[in-house]
Amino acid sequence: MPSPSIVWFRDDLRLADHPALRAALDRGEPVIGLYVLDEESDGIRPLGGAARWWLHHSLASLAERLAERGSRLILRRGPAHRVVREAVEDAGAGAVFWNRRYGGPEREIDAALKSDLREGDVEVASFAASLLFEPWTITTGAGKHFSVYSPFWRACLAQPAPRAPLPEPREVPGPSRYPASDDLDDWDLLPTEPDWAQGLRDTWEPGEPAAQARLREFLDEDLGHYDDARDRPSAGATSLLSPRLRWGELSPHTVWHAAVETPGASGFLSEIGWREFAWHTLYHFPDLATKNLRPEFDAFPWPRLKPTALRAWQKGQTGYAMVDAGMRELWETGYMHNRVRMITASFLIKNLMIDWRRGEEWFWDCLVDADGASNTFNWQWVAGSGADAAPYFRVFNPELQADKFDKTREYIGRWAPEYTDADGQPPMPMVDLKATRQNALAAYEKVKQVSRQE
């Protein structure tokens, strides 16, 4: 009697370049896809609202594509360690395959599950699919992890080229009997009361086919002027692939090999390298979302939180055009241009003197591309508390940044039109940029003093 293989999908919601799926097909038995919505296991961070919206539609797309090829996607909810074992028993599965995860709690779950399944004589294997380079393979000459990006990326590029992507299977044969599945709509991943997702629907089409189409479009139309235009938020030169990579609708191997032969691709590929750096850092520091990577920042004298100031920043009502435009783009689309992410984050941390963790939490809830590594890593970078951090005294002046990167005010005019309309009435600036910059630098001096005393 056939013993089906289960492919446990996680942040790899695709069929192309899917090593775990390929291993299941090579085993020669029927294949069942499984996705587990785990919001209960210790250390697992529940998804933000925008991420839940994306997940719903990406799962619907994956289920449809599996069905077209002969199998099904089974949906289960609960602690992954228990739920996967139950699915194995219900399906009579003889093997489980998955692609690796790199967060601390996720690795603990996977390791324990692998051990338990093998004790039950179930074949288990995991594969490298979400990063170009495994975190334990890139080390300094002393065998330690890198804390600075440039030498990290040089070490990556000195490795053998990333493997070629695997082809998408034409058929995924399913079993004669499937285990029970939840209904996707019953998971309530989509907002209803109120339904705030119209801007997301207008902006994005989740799923692997749309991801592949966007990659082709970027390579054909935007990559050639990426380096020149990527910092201008109105230029439309960025790849918009971050949510595709976050959800695994595209693999980094697919993106790498599609772009690497294109003239001028090195700047774009270095951004793929920055994503790698974030994940490698999280691998070595699992508490990145809550703890300063540089422990001397534990002494930073954050003032008592003023909820009204945080709310003004969240709503894009700070009185600074570039900040307000960015925060409104985020709320409307679930996305923000990278240059503007740095500006808005710097304003929160260094002008409003609000702990970077509060900003990271808001982005986690609002971004469709928020993942466990990049979101936290980038917030710590701006704060100066993280790896390869921007010096704390680098404060992004939002007015100077607007003059430099949005000279025509096209971006500001789209998202915060009251700043460009002759009859517009923008909010009054909530802080003085010069004075708050000096306050931030004075606070940083206290951190340095504590560090020297230690």
Automatic annotation (TrEMBL):
Coiled coil: none annotated. Pfam families: DNA_photolyase (PF00875), FAD_binding_7 (PF03441). SUPFAM superfamilies: Cryptochrome/photolyase FAD-binding domain (SSF48173), Cryptochrome/photolyase, N-terminal domain (SSF52425). One of its GO terms (molecular function) is deoxyribodipyrimidine photo-lyase activity. Its EC number is 4.1.99.3. Its cofactor is FAD. The keyword Ligase does not apply. Residues 3-132 form the Photolyase/cryptochrome alpha/beta domain. Keywords: Chromophore, FAD, Flavoprotein, Lyase. It comes from the Bacteria. InterPro entries: Crypto/Photolyase_FAD-like_sf (IPR036134), Crypto/Photolyase_N_sf (IPR036155), Cryptochr/Photolyase_FAD-bd (IPR005101), Cryptochrome/DNA_photolyase_1 (IPR002081), DNA_photolyase_1_CS_C (IPR018394), DNA_photolyase_N (IPR006050), Rossmann-like_a/b/a_fold (IPR014729). Residues 164-184 are annotated as: Disordered. Belongs to the DNA photolyase family. This is Deoxyribodipyrimidine photo-lyase. It comes from Microbacterium aquilitoris.
